[in-house]
Write a structure and sequence with these properties.
Helices cover 26% and strands 20% of the residues. By secondary structure, it is of the alpha/beta class.
Length: 108
């Protein structure tokens, strides 16, 4: 089994210390104070995390609009980023109806 990161599959033994929920590179304010659109500052934060012994983070934001930026942050910080597809409150999802009657992911 592999862990899917923003740059591809990762062996679980490479995860190391993992921060389970963080928001990386938020371009638009979804909640008051919830914005960090500066790639350099995101890299700096993750480099500090790496220096403190961290190796991986799980980004809890809606990642498709930020895929390019997350990949750049991953490459520069050397911290593994696992991006979820969070459904919570994103403007793109407010424009569509999401039915939980059907599975969101295809069967493997």
């Amino acid at each position: 089994m592999k862990i899917q990161t923003v740059l591809g599959p990762l062996s679980p033994d490479k995860l190391g210390v993992t921060y389970p929920y963080i928001h990386i590179y938020i371009k638009e304010e979804t909640e008051p104070g919830n914005i960090l659109p500066d790639i350099d500052k995101n890299v700096e934060e993750l480099v500090d995390f790496k220096k403190a012994g961290g190796n991986s983070v799980v980004d809890g934001g809606f990642w498709p609009p930020r895929a390019k930026e997350l990949a750049e942050i991953f490459k520069r910080s050397k911290v593994n980023i696992i991006a979820t597809s969070g459904l919570r409150g994103h403007k793109l999802l407010k424009k569509r109806r999401v039915s939980m009657k059907k599975p969101i992911l295809p069967k493997h």
